[in-house]
């Protein structure tokens, strides 16, 4: 599922995310190690990212509080949710809601090292 060209451009597409971070290097390392996001270090000390399929970009913001109260939930697609949960635990994250084996969709939620809560989504069956 790798997009070697350019992202898909289109009206209404979700394309850019700003994630709160207490430490940009820590956040960049976490998302690279767990999700293989590509990291761009900027001259001003900030960092930007592209997701693993180069369809969504973003940056980390140290001037914002972690998003840890339930509201809008962004889910990150993964091939193997169990392997991803292990990587989250190994890299300073925490599983907030484990996979519900009886649920229709294969999802879980986690907090990153800053405390942001996001979801995991595995497409297809186990």
Would you spell out the secondary-structure blueprint of this structure?
Layout: E1 16-20, H1 24-35, E2 38-41, E3 47-50, E4 57-61, E5 75-78, H2 81-90, E6 94-97, E7 106-111, E8 117-122
Parallel strand pairs: 1-4, 5-8
Antiparallel strand pairs: 2-3, 3-4, 6-7, 7-8
What's the helix count?
Answer: 2
What is the H/E string?
Answer: EHEEEEHEEE
Q: Which percent bin holds the helix content?
A: 10-25%
Biggest β-sheet: count, sense, barrel?
4 strands, mixed
Termini separation (Å)? 18 Å
Number of strands: 8
Shape: globular
Strand order of the largest sheet: 1-4-3-2
- As residue ranges, the low-confidence spans are none
- Rg result: 15 Å
Backbone structural class: alpha/beta
What does this protein look like?
There is one protein chain. With 126 residues, the chain is an alpha/beta fold. The chain contains two helices and eight strands. The chain is globular.
